[in-house]
Each structure stands twice: as structure tokens, then as C-alpha cells.
Amino acid sequence: MDTDIQIARGLIGAASLSSGPTDEQLNLVQSLLHGYFGLEADARSLTPISASDLAEAVPVDDRHRVADLLVVLEFCRHPYDEAQADLVEDYVAALGVDEPMLILARDAIQGEVEKVAADWSRLSAPPSGERAKAEEDREYGAKLRALESCPPLSLGRTYFQYYQQFDSPFPGEDGGPHSSVASHDFDHVITGYDTDPPGELALQAMLLASNGFHDHFSSLVASLLLYESASLPFLTIIPKEAVLDRDGAMDLLANGFLRGQMTTLDCRSLDHMAIVNRPLAEIRRECGIEPLTQPAHWDQ
């Protein structure tokens, strides 16, 4: 608990430019305090601490998590200010963490959309596991469409119901998205998050925390580039700015970190197509996934 309050104070310190933290940054810290750390504290009353003090307060094995939270904080400053990138980088350096996603955060602050795309291609994790297998399977789209015949309330049938909202061919079919997108869709189905921008951000927060902040951060940064800085056009998605400033979005993000921390298994490690006939509720229980208080419309 004491470490968490020091992390919150460090986040305030990392946002303390001459103008102070923005309202959105303060809202981020407040939501983390209540919805992730479980602390009854007021972000606006916290005394900021320096980069060196934060490094002293955080155990070495927890520093990557704190570095990732600092990058999220950086994205939450609008209008963007390069001094914010400098300050966050100072805090991450004090933690002794090598975080390549800082490059993308600075690209976004500088408004260099083409450089964002180039650096994203260079720094993002290549397809692996199920995503890689899907890319090699010419029949993958047909297999997804056949999930309609899976038992009611199973993972496969729920995936089929989930995909009806898009009015589009299935991933891997002619005219549909790339087959590798299906793995992301299965993440939505298993976690229960909707596909609106706040849901996308919360999903990535949950996946990151479920892996102990050891993997998946590039996916959260991609969502921040899409929905917080509007600097990474992707497929047919229209980039947006400051989505986390919407009502309820920051609390949903913080709860995503908490839900991920409570899981017992990284759901991205699952071979989804091998378990499509199993009850979705059973899979969620095995993964330690707590149900959402407001399920998506396809998950009723």
C-alpha cells in the first residue's frame, strides 16, 4: 500500500511541469488510486516526489510496471508539450528501465504521424502464437464462420454472436480483415470488453496486467496512439484524441489493470480454436476473470 501511494506521488511529480498536471492526468492518478491500488486518497492533495525518490520507493522487480504507467501518464497531457516527454523520460531513466515505447510517445507529442507509423512497425512485437498460425491458415475465415454451430453459451458461439455487430466478412475471408485480427476479437469475447475506444483501452490494460507487465505493452501503446493522441491510423478505425477524458473511461482503464492483476492466466496464451466448444463462463473462471458489472450487448 505504501509503495502504491509513492507511485501515485511519483506520477504527480512526473506530470508537474510549470503549469502543473492537467485535469486528465489528475483523473488518471485518481482512478488508479481508487480503482487499481484500492486506496482512499485524493490525487489533488498528494505531494509530488522526484524521480530519484520514486526509484528509491519502488522495488526493482516492480519498476517496469511503474515505467509503463508513466508512459500512459505522458499520453494524457493535452495540449501536448515536449517538456512532458523530457520529464517522463527522466523518471523512467531513474527507474533504470529500458522502455522503447517512450520513442512512440515522443513521436506522438511531436505530431509526427509518419514517424509514429515507421517506429511502430519497427518496435512493435511481431505476430506470434495463434496470430501467426492464423496468418498461415487459408481456411481460417471459414472456420470462424462455422463457429455458429458451436453449443449455446460456448466460446465459439459467443464469438460468432460478437462478430455479427460488424456487418463484415469474417477475418480471413475475402473482403474481411486480416485473419490475425481474430485473436484480438477473442480477447474481447473472453474479457467481456466492448469494442468502443474506452473498451479497447481497458482491454489492453487488462491484458498487460494479466501478464505482470512483462508483455503486451506495445498493444496498449497502440491503443493510446489511436485513441488518446490520434496519431496512428489503423485499418478503417478513425483516430481520436483524449478518449480517456470521457466520462467513465479512466475508471474503466483502472479497473482493467485491476482485473488483469486478479487473473490466474494470460488469456492470450490460450489456443482459442481448440476450446471453442467449451462454455465461456467456465473458461473465464479458469482464467480468474471477474465479470464486468455492465456486460457488452453481445455478452448478455
Keyword list:
54% helix; 300 residues; globular; mainly alpha
Describe this protein's structure.
The protein is mainly alpha-helical. The chain has two domains: 2-99, no CATH class; 129-299, no CATH class. The chain is built from 15 helices and no strands. α1 runs antiparallel to α3 and α2 packs parallel to α14. 47% of the residues are buried. The mean pLDDT is 91.
Question: Structural class of the secondary elements?
Answer: mainly alpha
User: What's the N-to-C terminus distance?
Assistant: 36 Å
Fraction of residues in H or I helices: 40-55%
Low-confidence stretches: none
Secondary-structure topology with pairs:
Layout: H1 2-14, H2 23-36, H3 51-57, H4 63-75, H5 82-95, H6 101-109, H7 113-123, H8 129-136, H9 140-145, H10 155-163, H11 181-191, H12 197-210, H13 217-227, H14 249-262, H15 280-287
Brief overview, please?
54% of the residues lie in helices and 0% in strands. By secondary structure, the protein is mainly alpha-helical.
